Amino acid sequence: MSWQRIPEDYSNMLQQWRTLENRYLQAMAQADEWGRRAKLALDKGNPELSQAAKRKEAYFRESAGALKGQMLVFKGKLPDIEIRLQLHEQRWEQGDNSG
After folding, report:
1. E strand or H helix at 58, and its extent?
2. Which of 16, 40, 59, 63 could bridge across to 27 with cysteines, CB 3.0–4.6 Å?
């Protein structure tokens, strides 16, 4: 990997992390909303609708779980690129920006 590419790679990884994190938060919010709807349907005396909402809730919780797993794997890669970025910055400060 070229030294010049490290800041760009780091920036790309952070953007990917933010995207993954946003997708996770959206899935969790959807799961919470479907859980609320399931309870509301049950409170209103509609167990069939409640079960359908619970299935949606489970789907979004499962999706959020998969996204969280991806986040854990991805997070393991960030320290490595952070170290490489620090090395790049040190070389740059020393005047060695030849790559």
Report:
1. helix 47-93
2. 63
